[in-house]
Specification:
Elements lengths: L4 E9 L6 H12 L5 E9 L6 H11 L3 E5 L6 H11 L4 E4 L11 H9 L4 E8 L5 H18 L10 E4 H9 L7 H8 L3 E7 L12 H15 L6 H25 L7 H34 L15
Helix pairs in contact: 5-8, 9-10
Length: 312
């Protein structure tokens, strides 16, 4: 008998009543062509306020390979992905969106790369599709900042990934609650392969991601992976001290030659010196906050890819 592998396809959904049935039919038609793989859908309903859950329940009646996880409210995409990964019990998982902007035809190539030894297969964007100039500008700005602050290049990455079961186990073992999926997968450091695609235009419905939500998500991603913003005050302290030295020198020069108003030099020097000490003090607090920041995340000091003794 052939060795049948089990793969779960995890799809977070939020108010996708217009697209979910068509998407599942399209994905199902693609995965039927892949031999020796037993696929199972894990659909995570992230507190949809429309009739998405009703449609999913009707689909599940006719399809035995679907599990529906229904959140009590909208907890967000990161929580939905984590719930799907936590629930899955298989050889590998595929995480993808429900709007078909993650092309299902890539699944076959992803599976083949995984069967050939890749722990992570990442679908990366050659182009971002039809986005406004403002959206592209802020997206590029976010990835530029993220790379500079964290040294992880996620410019073309997406949440469309295939993960081996050991990667899933390592990801779910991370104790932190505020998660950035694509960032943490890169941080884990397992062997990966990239395949590329052009983002197709969304055919039905509309995105639930507003600019405000994207801005909050970007702030969370940056602050959860980098403590550099904590040190901005330290740099400002150094700048203010340097500036105060120059201005203080000018004030003393004016005082010495009698050009300054009485009492002006003393006030200026006091303000500059006290301001610099406050900035330095805040910077010092930032250093200790950095230590707390790293400790409370409780990320492991290392991740073992494979123990050679376990192979014997």
């Amino acid at each position: 008998m052939k060795n049948i592998k089990k793969i779960s396809i995890i799809i977070p959904v939020f108010n996708e009543s217009a697209t979910i049935q068509h998407s599942l039919v399209t994905i199902s038609s693609e995965i039927k062509r892949i031999p020796n793989i037993d696929f199972h859908f894990i659909i995570v309903n992230d507190g949809s306020s429309d009739n998405t859950l009703e449609i999913l329940n009707k689909i599940a009646i006719n399809q035995m390979n679907i599990t529906i996880l229904n959140f009590t409210r909208n907890f967000g995409k990161e929580a939905a992905i984590y719930a799907g990964l936590k629930y899955s019990q298989c050889d590998a998982v595929i995480v993808m969106d429900s709007d078909l902007q993650h092309p299902p035809y890539l699944i076959e190539n992803m599976v083949n790369f995984w069967l050939n030894g890749s722990d992570v297969v990442e679908a990366c964007k050659l182009s971002r599709g039809k986005e406004s100039f403002i959206s592209k500008f802020f997206a590029q700005g976010f990835y530029f900042l993220f790379e500079k602050l964290t040294h992880f290049d996620l410019k073309k990455h997406s949440d469309f990934k295939l993960l081996d079961c050991k990667v899933v186990a390592a990801y779910c073992a991370l104790p932190e609650k505020k998660r950035f999926f694509r960032g943490l997968i890169s941080w884990l450091g397992f062997s990966s392969t990239q395949i590329f695609f052009d983002v197709p235009e969304r055919q039905l419905g509309h995105s639930a991601w507003s600019r405000y939500k994207l801005f909050r998500f970007a702030l969370h991603a940056l602050t959860s992976f980098s403590s550099v913003p904590l040190h901005v005050i330290s740099f400002l302290g150094i700048f203010c001290f340097s500036l105060s030295t120059i201005i203080g020198g000018i004030a003393l020069y004016d005082k010495w030659f009698g050009h300054a108003v009485s009492g002006f030099t003393t006030v200026i020097l006091l303000i500059l010196i006290v301001g610099s000490f406050i900035m330095f003090g805040l910077g010092l607090i930032g250093l200790y906050l950095e230590q707390i920041f790293d400790e409370i995340k409780q990320r492991p000091l290392y991740v073992i890819q494979q123990n050679k003794k376990d192979e014997k």
